[in-house]
Amino acid sequence: MKEADAIKLFIGQIPRNLEEKDLKPIFEQFGKIYELTVIKDKYTGMHKGCAFLTYCARESALKAQTALHEQKTLPGMNRPIQVKPADSEGRGEDRKLFVGMLGKQQEDDDVRKMFEPFGRIDECTVLRAPDGTSKGCAFVKFQSHAEAQAAINSLHGSRTLPGASSSLVVKFADTEKERGLRRMQQVASQLAVFSPMTLNLGAYNAYTQAVSITLVQQQTLVAQSAYLSPIATVAAVQMQQMAALNGNGIIATPITPITPITPSSGTNTPPAIAATPVPALPPPVGISGYSPVPAAANGQPASETIYTNGIHPYQAQSSAGVLDPLQQAYAGMQHYTAAYPAAYGLVSTPFPQQHTLVPQQQQQQQQREGPEGCNIFIYHLPQEFTDSELLQMFLPFGNVISAKVFVDRATNQSKCFGFVSFDNPTSAQTAIQAMNGFQIGMKRLKVQLKRPKDANRPY
DNA sequence: TCATATT
């Protein structure tokens, strides 16, 4: 039914309203289709905007790729259709070898001669430092997996080259994904130089610090920072700055304070908390339970909503005086606990059991655009921010339809920007007003309306 | 620095 060397194609940039039956006519013209499947979310069944396509004949796939890939744009899409071998087809990485333990003086040609006996070589490159000196390793790409395998079998460990400290290494080169993984492991090991407990302690200190602010503690916090990881230090120092700036623990500091984030009244002064020792706090709701409404904080219904417009956290509370200073401090801390540890990956709160108790917010749906004017673009996100932290951060401003951090697929690293979509433009505006310029670590968020689809198109 | 999605 299908050729042995058939290629499974990945089809990207297809409108989410097109199903298999709609797609078929587009692709049939290049040959008989063996299988065509729209990719859907495993749990929600949601159309992911892409598909897999296998033709019976390899040649059909090649023709379709040539004719369609990046060649036309389907209605409603802002980028051209993608037609290329699926990742599962192993983009030719299975014929590329990494060669280690070469001598420093070996040139491309020397390596090539060594590998020539095993097949036709497409590519042969010794890796070099910027100054041109060999790194003692190379990539060699054969035309087929079998040839590469033959070279491994014969050459790996077979000899020790002059100047090398160990016998020759010949193995398949890392795939793009493996490289990403490796990079992440390196980052992780960097952080692990400091004991894992140090990180948690840092989070804990910062937390208690923010709840109960005393000058002495602020000083010790900075002193302690010297022993924390760079990330924890940034977080700690940042929090300390915040505490100094604003006794109520609110961490938003817009560059242009269009809407100042301050307590609404001088008569009810939050700094009362300054002298309060660390008490038995109501358990923080942590990341997953983060809510702009303080009712969730102490388990009691609040008589008034603290956020009246998503910006003035304390605006409504002065009249009844229902919240004691500690509760105020705590309500303010929701910002801290939500944004801070999350921002730095320090999500293990001082009360980790809370995490297991509070069920994670329902699985965030695929990225979706809201109506025009409801979608915001956020740049300068902390590297550690994921969809969920982004969601938490913007939840106070309205119904979030979607929160998506962009991730480099090869490395799994955040690209430090993302989108949040609300169900109405007012929420989006409120979020922009409140969060544009929001300082996290050394950076300030840039929050603005997402560029409309047709922007930047000359015609 | 503006929705790239891989059963």
Write structural notes for this entry.
The protein has 459 residues and is an alpha+beta fold. It is built from 13 helices and 14 strands. The strands form four sheets. Strands 2-3-1-4 form a four-stranded antiparallel beta sheet, covered by helices on one side. A four-stranded antiparallel beta sheet has the order 6-7-5-8, covered by helices on one side. It has a four-stranded antiparallel beta sheet with strand order 10-11-9-14, with helices on one face. Strand 6 (121-128) and strand 7 (134-142) form a beta hairpin. Helix 6 (196-211) runs antiparallel to helix 7 (215-225) and helix 7 (215-225) runs antiparallel to helix 8 (230-245). Residues 194-364 have low confidence and may be disordered. The structure holds one DNA strand of 7 nucleotides.
Key structural traits:
flat, 459 residues, DNA-binding, alpha+beta, RRM domain-containing protein, four-stranded antiparallel sheet, RNA-binding, RBD_domain_sf, Nucleotide-bd_a/b_plait_sf
Mean pLDDT: 70
Order of helices and strands: EHEEHEEHEEHEHHHHHHHEHEEHEEE
Number of helices, counting only DSSP H or I runs of 4 residues or more: 13
Helix content: 25-40%
Radius of gyration: 28 Å
Low-confidence stretches: 194-364
Q: What fraction strand?
A: 15-25%
SS content category: alpha+beta
The total beta strand count reads 14
**What is the molecular shape?**
flat
Major β-sheet, in short?
Answer: 4 strands, antiparallel
Compute the separation of the termini in Å: 45 Å
